[in-house]
Write a structure and sequence with these properties.
Blueprint (H helix, E strand, L loop, with lengths): L4 H7 L2 H26 L34 E8 L2 E9 L4 E11 L10 E14 L7 E7 L9 E10 L3 E10 L8 E2 L23 E11 L4 E7 L5 H4 L21 E8 L5 E7 L3 E10 L34 H17 L2 E8 L3 E8 L5 H15 L6 E8 L2 E2 L2 E5 H7 L4 H6 L2 E3 L16 E15 L2 E18 L2 E13 L19 H7 L3 E14 L2 E9 L4 E10 L6 E13 L7 E18 L2 E9 L5 E10 L5 E9 L3 H4 L5 E9 H5 L6 E7 L15 H5 L4 H6 L7
Parallel strand pairs: 15-16
Antiparallel strand pairs: 1-2, 1-13, 2-3, 3-4, 4-5, 5-6, 6-7, 7-9, 8-9, 9-10, 10-11, 11-12, 12-13, 14-15, 16-17, 16-18, 18-19, 20-21, 21-22, 22-23, 23-24, 24-25, 25-26, 26-27, 27-28, 28-29, 29-30, 30-31, 31-32
Length: 728
């Protein structure tokens, strides 16, 4: 989306232009979900979400309620009133636990020595429901608001909500911090009020301290679309009114609005697709508006998919079971392989090789079509049952990616015939999933096309720059690869920027570390066109349960060198261990072939663990690009349909002062599979990383084709999660 600033300037007052710019980040989030918002009108059995307040969490108007969103719900909200624009991304991590990330722009508010007249603030929230609602008992939730940030919106609360009949809901609670600043009825000690200089540090010394004030309200659902609300707010909005000293030096700041009342009223309208549009009368002097979009990774438009039906299994005749003469006919065996290859190709699968005997067949298969791996295995097995002679009883399917044999899935043909219409779990109980080391048939497609070429648009985002909350580069990327052997690949990509403003960063980014990432604006400015990467990569199986990768060349936009990786991952284990070692030099800003003087050896030891219930943890400990030592801790919630929602944090021996604004590296990441949105099989997916800031501390090399994500998809724990699609 392109905004033409001179035209907008004629249409909007100058002061509001800054708000428009500030809201772009929220707009990006909403635009990203808009196609799904439109598609969600026909979602299957999606639980209804409670209404969200202007902070983007379940609530009344400005105050929270004790309600929780449906498990795994992902919501994106954009609200505006009195010069304040809030964009919030919330995720229901567990049925009782939710987390939110918020980015706020306040027009006319300058708590530090800013040259702009808009202040930008990042904050994180956590909410936990202590009690769910019963027949006589209200739901009770405890919340931490802005518990990692500057403390501008810092607050804690305990809130209870109870429904009276089907339409009326009552809420009451006690708040501290911002939510204890108006109408206080007591105190639990002294609470610091100054903004934290760098932010990013938990404000535990303030939690549940200071004045305590009550808040509450009522909501009435007129029908399934319209809800009216009224609330009593305990937020005095002291910083925005210029009456509370919050700057580091304790100065009072100019007022952004006049708070005349503690009462707010408004209405929420729920669209047919479940999303929410709200309008409010706030604090006796302001009008607020809000849009909230709800999506749930657990539910899709077409839960079963809209691809063509699989080929039915053809049961064998009793006479064919012992007919073995065909196995001595080499010409007939080649014809059988060719027929099977054609049948699989019609389903988007590739037969790369096969070992065939009178009683067994071992298939080497690559899958570029199905993001649900059991679906690829099931369709290959169906074709084998229709094409192979009746005496072949045992099928072993070896999925291969980048020449790596990932597992060996062994099925008995009689089980396929007997259990085709039984629950998928019955077939899984009869299936063996073992390590494919030493079992993979030879690669037979010597005349197959080995090269790939594509041209596609790209978008690069940089967010949270205080001078401009969203910077974007957009252009065209040409990518090519050539498989010298099945396990040796030469690849590269070139990007040409067509429009953008990543190169317009003028604000100095201070760093007490080697500038390993903070010169990103220079790479954008001088690298047009840019050689993004040019590498030679070898994949291997050095032993049982072992996988390897070696990459050499221009590894990414900023670094060239060599990268090696070794992964230990038993096929039936939830645990994997890895080691990576890199030696790299920094590339020239123009991203051609030249190199700069900075060089570094960097590497990590990694542990990966599947906790069950869709939760995956990862710890990477080692040396980062700036030479700092530390570890990155990641936790993702993953869904059988390919969705992933997670967060990470990196802690190194770099002090918060040396790191700079943000104090340490952290971020949120989303993976959205296109198959979920389209209802058709595809392995393509969109990755989005929301990083708090680009800094030099905790920076890691961005090398392609790391092993763990590629290897584990065909191992027993992952296959079992999606096994229900084996008959699709």
């Amino acid at each position: 989306m392109t905004f033409h600033r001179p035209l907008i300037a004629h249409l909007l007052p100058a002061a509001r232009l800054r708000v428009v710019r500030a809201s772009l980040l929220g707009g990006v989030a909403l635009i990203g979900f808009w196609p799904m918002m439109a598609a969600s009108e026909n979602l299957f059995a999606v639980p209804e979400s409670p209404t969200h307040n202007m902070y983007g969490v379940p609530g009344l108007i400005d105050m929270p309620t004790a309600d929780m969103a449906p498990d795994a719900q992902l919501s994106s909200s954009l609200s505006h009133f009195a010069g304040t624009t809030r964009s919030t991304l919330s995720f229901q991590v567990l049925p009782r636990l939710s987390g939110s990330f918020r980015y706020t722009a306040i027009d006319g508010y300058m708590p530090r020595d800013y040259t702009l007249t808009t202040y930008y603030d990042r904050s994180f929230d956590l909410r936990y429901q202590l009690l769910d609602e019963g027949q006589y008992r209200p739901a009770v939730t405890v919340g931490l608001q802005d518990f990692i940030g500057t403390g501008l919106y810092g607050a804690e609360y305990i809130v209870a909500t109870k429904g009276i009949g089907d339409k009326l809901r009552l809420t009451g609670g006690l708040g501290w911090g911002r939510l204890g600043s108006s109408g206080a009825v007591g105190s639990t000690g002294t609470r610091p009020t100054a903004l934290l200089g760098q932010g990013g540090i938990p404000t535990y010394d303030r939690w549940f301290r200071g004045d305590v004030a009550p808040f509450g309200g009522i909501s009435y659902q007129v029908n399934d679309r319209l809800t009216f609300k009224a609330e009593y707010s305990s937020d005095a909005y002291g910083p925005e009114r210029g009456i509370t000293p919050v700057a580091v030096d304790g100065n009072r700041l100019p007022a952004t609005f006049d708070r005349k009342s503690s009462w707010n009223i408004g209405a929420d309208y729920r669209f047919k697709n479940g999303n929410q549009l709200s309008i409010y009368s706030l604090y006796g002097s302001e009008v607020g508006v809000q849009l909230s979009i709800f999506n749930n990774p657990r539910y899709a438009k077409a839960p079963s998919g809209i691809e063509t039906a699989p080929t039915p299994i053809r049961p064998r005749s009793a006479a064919s079971l012992d007919q073995l003469g065909w196995s001595a006919d080499d010409l007939g065996m080649r014809a059988t392989k060719q027929k099977l290859a054609q049948a699989m190709a019609a389903d988007g699968l590739k037969l790369e090789g096969m070992t065939l005997t009178a009683r067994s067949a071992t298939l080497r298969m690559s899958n570029d079509s199905y993001n649900a791996e059991p679906q690829a295995i099931g369709r290959a097995a169906r074709h084998m049952a229709r094409v192979l002679p009746g005496s072949v009883e045992q099928f072993t399917i070896v999925p291969v990616s980048r020449g790596l044999a990932l597992s060996a899935v062994t099925l008995q043909r009689r089980d396929l015939e007997r259990l085709e219409h039984a629950p998928a779990e019955a077939l899984l109980a009869r299936t063996q999933i073992t390590d494919a080391y030493g079992q993979v048939p030879a690669y037979e497609l010597s005349n197959e096309k080995r090269h790939k070429f594509s041209v596609a648009p790209y978008v690069t985002l940089s967010v949270f720059d205080p001078d401009n909350p969203v910077r974007v580069d957009a252009g065209i990327r040409a990518s090519a690869s050539y498989d010298i052997t099945p396990s040796l690949r030469f690849s590269g990509s070139i990007a040409k920027k067509l429009a953008g403003n990543l190169d317009s960063v003028t604000r100095a980014i201070p760093s007490n570390l080697p500038r390993v990432r903070t010169d990103y604006a220079e790479y954008s400015k001088q690298g047009d066109p840019a050689l993004e990467h040019l590498t030679l990569t070898h994949f291997g199986r050095p032993g049982r349960d072992l996988y390897s990768r070696m990459t050499v060349g221009y590894l990414e936009t900023m670094y060239a060198g060599v990268s090696g990786e070794l992964l230990w991952k038993p096929v039936d284990s939830r645990l994997a261990l890895g080691a990576e070692l890199n030696y790299v030099k920094q590339r020239d800003f123009d991203q051609r072939l030249g190199l700069r003087d900075y060089e570094v050896a960097t590497g990590h030891l990694s542990a990966y663990y599947d906790f069950g219930n869709g939760f995956h943890g990862q710890v990477d400990a080692g040396r980062y690009l700036a030479g700092d030592l530390g570890a990155t801790v990641s936790l993702d919630r993953e869904f059988a349909n390919g969705w992933r929602v997670g967060a990470y944090a990196t802690f190194t021996d770099v002090t918060a002062d040396d790191f700079g604004e943000g104090s340490f590296d952290k971020g949120i990441r989303l993976t959205i599979p296109l198959a979920w949105a389209l209802g058709k099989p595809t392995r393509r997916e969109n990755d989005l990383v929301i990083q708090s800031l680009t800094r030099d501390g905790g920076a890691r090399l961005n090398v392609n084709d790391r092993l763990y994500g590629r290897v584990r998809d065909y191992h027993q724990p992952e296959l079992a999660k999606e096994w229900g699609r084996v008959w699709r």
